[in-house]
Each structure stands twice: as structure tokens, then as C-alpha cells.
Amino acid sequence: MNYYVMKNNQRINLLDIPTIEFNTLRAQLAATNLRPVSFFGSDWGQNVKLFVVLADDEKGELLVVSSLIDKNVKEYESITKDNHQYHMFEREFYEQFNIKPLGHPWLKPVRKNQDDYEFFEMEGEETHQVAVGPIHAGVIEPGHFRFMCQGEKVYNLEIMLGYQHRGVEDLMVKKPSNQLAESICGDSVIAYNMAYSQVMEELSGMEITNKAKLIRRVALEMERTAIHIGDLGAILGDIAYQMGKEVFGVTRTLVINTMLEISGSRFGRGLITVGGVNFDIDKDLSKKIVDVLNNVKNTVEKMTRATLKSSTVMSRLEKTGVVSNEIANELNLVGMIGRSCGINLDSRFDFCDEFYKDFERKSFNATNDAYSRFRIRYKEIIESISFVKKLLKKLEGYEKEDLCVPVKNFIPNSFALSVVESWRGELVHVATTDGEGKLSRYKIKDPSFNNWYGLSMAVRNNGISDFPLCNKGFDLSYCGFDL
Fold first, then answer.
1. Helix 283-308 to helix 210-238 angle, to the nearest 10 degrees?
2. How far apart are CA 117 and CA 125, in angstroms?
3. Over the stretch 349-368, which tens digit does the pLDDT of each residue have?
4. Of 9, 28, 121, 388, which alpha carbon lies 20 to 30 A from 349's?
5. Residues 54, 33 contacting (CB under 8 angstroms)
6. Is the same domain home to 98 and 221?
7. Does residue 370 contact residue 320 with C-beta atoms inside 8 Å?
8. 234: domain CATH number?
């Protein structure tokens, strides 16, 4: 196939992206082993221009191709029936442009699904439905879960999202800002703001300082550490292991309070800006961060050891919510959920981030269950603490550099992409400019876009009482999905 080969965080000329006939593209996508990273349409006058970004993870390359589809064409042969990794992408494309993928195995809506939607049905003795949401107790965001059960066993879980109609991607084109970027998904402030800023910088041909790049990565790893620790506690809370819940909850607070000292926000709001960062990390603050994280590491290690010695904890975690490696690959699961199923993808290493190239990438013995999802968090907490300390050490060599460089105008006819390994996994931001240098398209893919269907698979043949444990083990984003 005729691709444009690019690297992560790179700008290319929009007009240099190959445009090939759709049926040719469709056949090649159906047969390729390359993994889809982004698949979206853009209004192109009388046509829709489809952009496809594939990842060659072994080479650390991103391959971009496009196709023009006449708006009068209302259907095409589905790619998904030959390559299941496209199942969500095709559903979203159909919903946005009304071009139907014929033969798609389950062409349900992605976000516009609240009107006259017919849920999957089952019949049989003792078969019944359990409906949960979309309004939930507490502060959880809206989402509807429809369980098809026989007795206590779940045979199918259908998840309906899309209740938050925010129009984020259109807002990004009309009025892009760091404040908007960091507000899209409140538990991934650093990851979203970093991806947005990197795309904007590439569209403008800007080169920020190494100092700013390092501070961003310190914050990214601290965000990963804090959320993973909180999730360890939440998982244990769902199985009534209160000691672990409370200890991990308190320990998470130590990390986010340290983020507060860096930027004035416990979640890192205002830290990252287009052109660099707004706040420095001097030697005194660096030492304080290291001291806090050493204490955090010690507590996490002790509490994890005590937790995994508990037979009651292990009885709930082991062999609960299993997702096979084969299913995980078919669904294109990413991030820590993918890694917990044996899919060794991590964009920090796969796409050769210059500041991670000297860091050790340790293997993980996946068991594909709730226990695996607990252990992957523990492993990544310990790794991220190590990474932060190494990044802070590197930062000492750039203390005289500026925090921020002047912002430039966008370059006309540009295509830029940034993949950031958020704590959930592969976060993708893509943006294009038109011939006048104005933003023409902004596309976001949260890792939850890949992973929600994995949760449906995890609860199959489990007791319905195991759903909270499975749900928290995945800990997917409603707002990152409901764009």
C-alpha cells in the first residue's frame, strides 16, 4: 500500500498524504497486520475524506493514507468483517457521515443511541435483564449497562454511552486552548494537555526546550502513579478489603498533593501550555518530589505484599473477568488493559520517546483476569516512580533553559499527530489545517474508545456480582468517550 510514513509528534504536508481509491484501500486494510490508531472522516466539499493512521509498533512508525468518498455513496463493504480491529472505528464513521459499512457484525450506534434503540434480547427459562443507569448513585458519569442473565450468570453486557453531547472536537477547531484540552477528561489532565500541546506545536513548526519536555514527562508519570494507586484502593474497596482501600487512598493523596506544589493544582491544571510549561521544578522541589515518592513506593510495596497474601482477596481476583489474548487482539485493546491480556504495547517505547530510550522496559506475565489488572497497576506504579527520579536527574542538565518558547502561527495544509501513553493507554490527538493555516479538523481517540467493549467480554460467564470488580479493574472513561 502507498503510505506516508511518519513518526510520532511530527508534522507532515496534508497534500503529501496518498489518496487512493476506496475499494483498494478497503481490501488492503482488511488484510494488513498493522494496527489502526486513528480512522476518521473530514468534510471535503462534495466528498468525505477518510484518513487512516496505522501503527507499525516494531519499527516505531505511523503510516498515513487517505481516500475520497463521494457523499452520494451511502454504503461500502465493511472492513470489520475481515479485520475486527476496525469495529469501533467503522461504527463511529457511519454515525458521523451516514456511510454504512455493509456486513458489519454489530452496527450499533456509538454515541447517538438514546432514541428507539433495541437492545440485544435473549429468551429462555430463568433468563432476565438487569438494567443499570444511566443515572448512578454518587458522582459517576452517565452510562447505561444492560445485563442479559440466566440466574446470576451474565451472558451478555450491552453498554450504552453517549449521554454527554459536548461537541469537543468542534470546539477544538473553533476555539482551541490548553484549558479546553485539560478539561476533556478530568483524570487525565496531563496526558490530554500534553497531546494537545504537542499537536499545536507541530502544526506551528515549534521546537520547545528539553527542560519543558522533561517537566511534562515528570508530570505524566506522576499522574500515572496517582491514578493507579487510587485504583488499587478502589478495586480493594469493591471486594470489601477495607485496609487496602484506605491505605492506597491516603497514599494517592501524597502524590497529587506533590503535584499541587508544582503547579498549584492537584491534577496538574495549568502546568502545560503550548510552547512549554508554566512552572519550573528547581533542585529543592525535585528533592522533595523524590522524598515523597520514595515514601510512596515503600507504602505501596508493603500494602501490596500484605494484600496479595490474603486468600480472600486472591479468591476474588484470580480467574475473575478473564479476557483472552485472542479476544484482546481482535478488539484492539490498548494500554494497561491490553498489557494485562498479554498485548505488549506502550507508546512511550514503541514510538521511541527520546527521554525513555534508556529506561528498561520490563516484561509482564499476564494472567488476563482481575488479578492481572491489579498487578499491572502495581508494576507501573513502581516503574513510574523510577522514571520520575531518572527524569528529574536528567532535568538537572537543562536548568538554565527556558520554560516556554514563543508561539507561532499554524503552517497551511498541515497534518500533525501526537500519541501519548496516558495512564489508561494510547491517547491519540490528530489535527489538520487548511490552505489558509486555519484548523480544519481535530480528532481525539481516548484509550477507552478501544477498551469499553473489552469490559463487555470480561463479564461474560461471570456472576453479576463480579461486575463492580471488573468495571473498576478496567476503569474506563465516560467523558473521554463522550466527545
1. 30
2. 25
3. 999 899 998 898 888 999 99
4. 28
5. no
6. no
7. yes
8. 1.10.645.10
